Amino acid sequence: MSGVSVTKAAEDAAPEANDLVVLSNVNKHFGALHVLQDIDLTIARGEVVVVIGPSGSGKSTLCRTINRLETVDSGAISIDGKPLPQEGKELARLRADVGMVFQSFNLFAHKTVLENVMLGQIKVRKADKKAAEEKARTLLDRVGVGVQADKYPAQLSGGQQQRVAIARALAMDPKVMLFDEPTSALDPEMINEVLEVMQQLARDGMTMIVVTHEMGFARSAANRVVFMADGKIVEEATPDQFFSNPRSDRAKDFLSKILHH
Amino acid sequence: MNVLLDNFPAFRDGFIGTVSITAVSSLIALVLGVAVAGFRVSPVPPLRYFGTAWVTLMRNTPLTLLFLIFFFVVPEILFPGMSPFVLGSLALGFYTSSFVCEAVRSGINTVPLGQAEAARSIGMTFAQTLQLVVLPQATRTVVPPLSSIFIALTKNSAIAGAFSNAELFGWQKLMSDKGYDIVPVFIWVAIGYLIITFTISGLFRLLERRMEVAR
Ligand SMILES: Nc1ncnc2c1ncn2[C@@H]1O[C@H](COP(=O)(O)OP(=O)(O)OP(=O)(O)O)[C@@H](O)[C@H]1O
Ligand SMILES: [Mg+2]
């Protein structure tokens, strides 16, 4: 239990310098499909936002536009005051500041766990090998997979792989971490070990955007829940408000479905 | 009497000629092929167009025609005074690079998209993503087709003989002009080629086995 109900009281008066990720009027199409419709979303430094919503509502796409794995058709996205640049070296540099954790882990299959966590430090941050290894080992210990350092990803359980993926992202010292359904490819008994790592991260003050249906996590770690449906942000509220007393019909309907499972 | 023993120095020169052209044009084909494959999957449209054009042009031009262009057109308008060896290696290397490119590209396509996305998400550039994450994982699927491509290259090097290069197949012509019985001549030439192609497939099999052991 930490900072559970830090409501965004000063919603519109939020000082600009404290805004880390700002999406304004973002639109995106996949062909005829309008996946993101006029998205306005501001995430403050240190804030933990959970994005929730039915399948196909555009949650993954939203995450992916924030580090420009997907381009947007219109609107602006800025990170720490800087607008996302065009594809190229500068974008690469900015991406290093935005950690991303995927549903399917995506650890580099031809590298050991340790190398996975060292690679970005050495090639992107230009850290020297020794420092990179030291930091990698510290991070791997922190997520509880230190003893697996010399194994290949395929030799690890899903939960362990996902924790390595978190360590790999953290190794870049990101300003914000994006999680796209980090536990939905995991067997139930492994979900908690990953959520615990994420909870610890939230307690340490990391800015996080988390797409998840794990209500326990949302209630214990999130400052805000963003509910998406059909490419729009339908509702924003504190976790307690959202789960016990959703305002929109869309959210009520959605919650009744996931709660009955 | 014995066509090989009587003419061994010429045979040796021909063998060395074939090995040299094969080696040099393989190197050219490999480097160019990988680079053009990179172009073909690059996010930069002009590079992609260039890659597609290169493959289409090189792969669909008959090799003999390519040799003719390299020997009679290129020296006229571009670089006069290049040796037949260089011209032949370039023609053969460029031609083969289109096949190498396509083999590498199909290898790239077997690597799950998530690998490249993960690499980009930690801030790697396109070139780094390709070099450090995608290509190493593509290698395993690319090696077997490359073996066939380089064997085909070895045999294609015979065309260079028609363009004043000393190589194995040229030795055959020399011998039949001298009036030797053509059957043993062909057998020796075939053995010469077999030595080279067996060496290539052996090397590649070794490479494949080593990649299986790793990981
Ligand atoms: N690359 C793509 N090309 C075309 N359509 C796409 C692409 N990616 C996603 N879509 C479509 O866009 C819509 C939103 O997809 P998105 O993955 O963002 O949804 P989501 O909310 O993450 O859903 P889920 O809960 O299933 O992960 C879906 O209808 C999907 O089919
Ligand atoms: Mg999704």
From TrEMBL, chain A:
Keywords noted in UniProt: Amino-acid transport, ATP-binding, Cell membrane, Membrane, Nucleotide-binding, Transport
InterPro entries, per the entry: AAA+_ATPase, ABC_ATPase_HisP-typ, ABC_transporter-like_ATP-bd, ABC_transporter-like_CS, MetN_ABC_transporter-like, P-loop_NTPase
Cellular compartments per GO CC: plasma membrane
Superkingdom, taxonomy of origin: Bacteria
CDD domains (UniProt xref): ABC_HisP_GlnQ
E.C. designation(s): 7.4.2.1
Keyword Transferase appears in the UniProt entry: no
Domain ABC transporter: 21-255
Single Gene Ontology MF annotation: ATP binding
Membrane topology of the entry: Peripheral membrane protein
Protein location: Cell membrane
Pfam families tied to this protein: ABC_tran
EC top class named in words: translocase
Reactions it catalyzes: a polar amino acid(out) + ATP + H2O = a polar amino acid(in) + ADP + phosphate + H(+)
Family statement drawn from the similarity comment of this UniProt entry: Belongs to the ABC transporter superfamily.
Stated name of the protein: ABC-type polar-amino-acid transporter
From TrEMBL, chain B:
Keywords assigned by UniProt, alphabetized: Amino-acid transport, Cell membrane, Membrane, Transmembrane, Transmembrane helix, Transport
Signal sequence coordinates: none
GO terms classed as biological process: amino acid transport
GO molecular function: transmembrane transporter activity
Source organism per UniProt: Streptomyces violaceoruber
Keyword Cell membrane: yes
Entry annotated with the keyword Transport: yes
Residue ranges of the TM segments: 15-39, 60-79, 185-207
Listed name of the protein: Amino acid ABC transporter permease
NCBIfam families: HEQRo_perm_3TM (TIGR01726)
Cell compartments where the protein resides: Cell membrane
Example of a GO cellular component annotation carried by this entry: ATP-binding cassette (ABC) transporter complex
Membrane topology reported for the UniProt record: Multi-pass membrane protein
Source organism superkingdom: Bacteria
Alphabetized SUPFAM superfamilies for the sequence: MetI-like
Chief location category: membrane
Entry-linked InterPro entries: AA_ABC_transptr_permease_3TM, ArtM/GltK/GlnP/TcyL/YhdX-like, MetI-like, MetI-like_sf
Pfam families per the UniProt record, alphabetical: BPD_transp_1
Residues covered by the ABC transmembrane type-1 domain: 15-204
Family indicated by similarity: Belongs to the binding-protein-dependent transport system permease family. HisMQ subfamily.
